[in-house]
Design brief:
It is a single chain. The protein is α+β, with helices and mostly antiparallel strands. It folds into two domains: 31-67, no CATH class; 77-176. The protein has helices spanning 3-11, 31-39, 64-67, 70-75, 101-109, 128-142, 155-176; strands at residues 42-44, 47-49, 59-61, 79-85, 92-98, 118-125, 145-147, 150-152. β1 and β2 (47-49) form a beta hairpin.
Length: 177
């Protein structure tokens, strides 16, 4: 079939069919197909979440808190342990855990008129709560002061300690298996 015949058939509304199967050719740009596919997808803060993720729920959300309650998110073991800072308090960092550390940092931005919280470091983990407890214990030993999850320590030192701890935990798991 020539290009002119193909264009003429499409213009007249005829659907091109696959001669081997007898079915219409698939078009990824069909509006109905795109809508059906998007209806099954999940986006949090503009990022697509795998349909295999245990907390998958189709739709578009600004944050994980909008999707599920805090208990459901905390019940999920995998995630990140992170270090964030704000230049308004240059000697202090927060060490916390989250399902998505970028989403958590954006949550902190709402409390700052300058939107100046920044992620210093984050590590992925299979058990965010356990790694966070270990990180708090280790970083507290090297910090000048502690207030909850906030530590008076150089941000890069806190990041290095978190990375060191993460590597040790991974190494320990690999040697025990």
């Amino acid at each position: 079939m020539s290009l002119t015949e193909s264009t003429t058939k499409e213009a007249t509304g005829q659907i091109r069919t696959n001669p081997r199967t007898g079915k219409p050719y698939y078009s990824k740009d069909k509006r109905e197909a795109v809508q059906a596919r998007d209806a099954k997808r999940m986006y949090v803060n503009g990022k697509e979440v795998s349909k295999h993720h245990p907390l998958h729920k189709p739709g578009r959300y600004k944050s994980w808190e909008e999707v599920h309650n805090h208990q459901a998110i905390n019940a999920f073991k995998e995630g990140y342990v992170y270090v964030i800072r704000n230049p308004a308090w240059p000697d202090w960092v927060k060490v916390g855990m989250a399902l998505d550390y970028e989403d958590r940092c954006k949550g902190y931005q709402t409390s700052s008129p300058f939107r100046d919280y920044e992620i210093v470091h984050a590590v992925a983990t299979n058990d965010k709560r356990a790694l966070e407890v270990l990180a708090h214990t280790l970083i507290e030993q090297f910090s000048i002061d502690r207030r909850g999850e906030w530590f008076m320590i150089d941000a890069l030192d806190a990041a290095a300690l978190l990375q060191q701890l993460s590597t040790e935990v991974i190494d320990a798991k690999n040697t025990t298996h």
